[in-house]
Specification:
The chain is mainly α. It has one domain. Helices cover 83% and strands 0% of the residues. Helix 3 runs parallel beside helix 8. The longest helix is centred in the first third of the chain and has 37 residues. The radius of gyration is 21 Å and the shape is globular. The two termini are 19 Å apart.
């Protein structure tokens, strides 16, 4: 197969350098995605006020819920295309590309409509304080207008990743992030549109990133090239994408659902706690981007090599990915925890907001090593096409534990620290069961579909 200069040959040669070349641009892409949110939080915190900042923080879990489903579905496309490329089934891989593209558009429109209808009920269930509820609703309703673009970008990025190209999606998102920052300042400082302007800037930025990748796919050569005149949905490939992607999306949604519950508990602690969580989340999610980048590297490297029938290389890719993830993640964590107060003050200078933000960072950033194992093993299992198992484990161990914790431990001791403690506890339990699931499936692994 012909490779362009941005593709990575995952089937031959050393692994560690190729995994780094694949994962770091992917991690930076995740950071750029978070930069869109960080720019919103920064602009509102500095130029509008902490209530506006808290309003965006209230939307974080809701937005994460929707985007997680999109990203999970797109991961199904990544695995299916990668397996077909590894197995040299070029016609089937090209059919999967076309199917993924059309699915992205349809899913984005459908979920955007559903989400718009659910905004008011969700805010009611979350008991969003009256001081921020109007601003939170304005931001979310405008943000959801860009959901089709978010869906399309994630699927387009998954198509590029399946062939080893993680730099093109990074370039597209870096451009969009620059657009978002400029428009945030223009809409807030020049036009005085406040939170509506920030949301509109984010929508425009998401559209820009999707258009850039769309043009790149039109100009691509080989298996991932998009030909609008030959677009079609292959039912077999659609089934495989949904079979793998939907559980992955549900797994991500479970985290967001549990975070919705935790957000409701945070809301009960007041505006300072809400603003602190919004700022700290913006920081900690960037650490997770590194972990997630190497987890998706495991998915794609395993997917291609599993398609090629090289199981020993699949296992090596899994462990190399997790080892590299641990090294990069621990370095980043040390920096963040050492400069926690200084970094938080970039978002808001209120001493109480900074104090609570530091508490959250220590509870969530310090035990990120557990997340390395969780993401690495989940990613590897998805690369083999095993997506339902990690989704079920996450549902039980993450969502279940957090629900119980909020209604027991937090109800008894309603402090910010008590609430934050549920994160490492639920992660550790999930990690234990994922290790057991990985060992179980490796002993019973079936050949890739023919």
């Amino acid at each position: 197969m012909k490779f362009n200069t941005r593709d990575i040959d995952m089937l031959h040669g050393s692994l560690w350098d190729k995994i780094i070349l694949f994962a770091l641009p992917l991690a930076l892409t995740g950071v750029m995605q978070q930069l869109l949110n960080a720019a919103d939080v920064f602009t509102l915190g500095q130029f509008v006020g902490k209530n506006a900042m808290a309003a965006v923080g209230n939307n974080t879990s809701m937005v994460g819920l929707i985007v997680s489903l999109m990203m999970g579905l797109s991961l199904g496309a990544n695995v299916v295309i990668a397996q077909n490329i590894g197995a040299q089934k070029i016609d089937r891989a090209h059919s999967a590309v076309n199917t993924a593209f059309l699915l992205a558009i349809g899913a984005g429109i459908c979920f955007g409509i559903i989400a718009e209808l659910l905004v008011a009920p969700i805010f009611y269930l979350l008991e969003v304080p009256e001081s921020v509820v109007d601003m939170a609703e304005v931001y979310l309703r405008i943000f959801l207008l860009g959901l089709p673009a978010i869906s399309l970008y994630n699927f387009e990025a998954a198509i590029f990743r399946s062939k080893g190209d993680t730099r093109t999606p990074l370039i597209a998102l870096a451009t969009a992030s620059g657009v978002n920052i400029v428009l945030n300042l223009l809409f807030v400082l020049q036009f005085d549109w406040g939170i509506a302007g920030v949301a509109a800037a984010t929508v425009i930025a998401n559209i820009v990133s999707a258009i850039i990748l769309f043009r790149a796919l039109l100009k691509s050569e080989g298996v991932i090239k998009i030909n609008l005149n030959a677009m079609h949905i292959d039912k077999e490939e659609l089934f495989e994408i949904v079979r793998i992607g939907l559980p992955a999306g549900i797994q991500g949604m479970v985290f967001s659902l549990s975070n919705l519950l935790i957000q409701a508990a945070i809301n009960s602690l007041g505006a300072d706690a809400m603003a602190a969580s919004a700022a700290a989340f913006t920081i900690e999610i960037n650490v997770f981007c590194v972990v997630n980048g190497f987890g998706q590297a495991a998915t794609t490297f395993v997917g291609q090599n599993y398609g090629a029938g090289n199981l020993s290389r699949c296992k090596r890719a899994t462990w190399v990915s997790m080892g590299l993830s641990a090294i990069f993640m621990q370095t980043l964590c040390c920096f963040i925890l050492f400069f926690a107060e200084e970094v938080l003050s970039l978002f808001n200078s209120d001493p109480e907001v900074i104090r609570l933000g530091v508490i959250r960072l220590w509870y969530i950033v310090l035990p990120e090593l557990v997340n390395v194992l969780m993401e690495g093993l989940s990613g590897a299992l998805r690369g083999y096409g095993i997506s339902l198992t990690p989704a079920i484990i996450t549902l039980i161990c993450v969502c279940g534990v957090r629900v119980v914790w909020v209604f027991t431990a937090f109800a008894k001791i309603p402090t910010y620290a008590t609430l934050m403690a549920v994160y490492p506890i639920s992660w550790f339990l999930t990690m234990v069961f994922l290790i057991a699931a990985y060992v179980y499936h490796m002993k019973r692994l079936k050949p890739v579909r023919q």
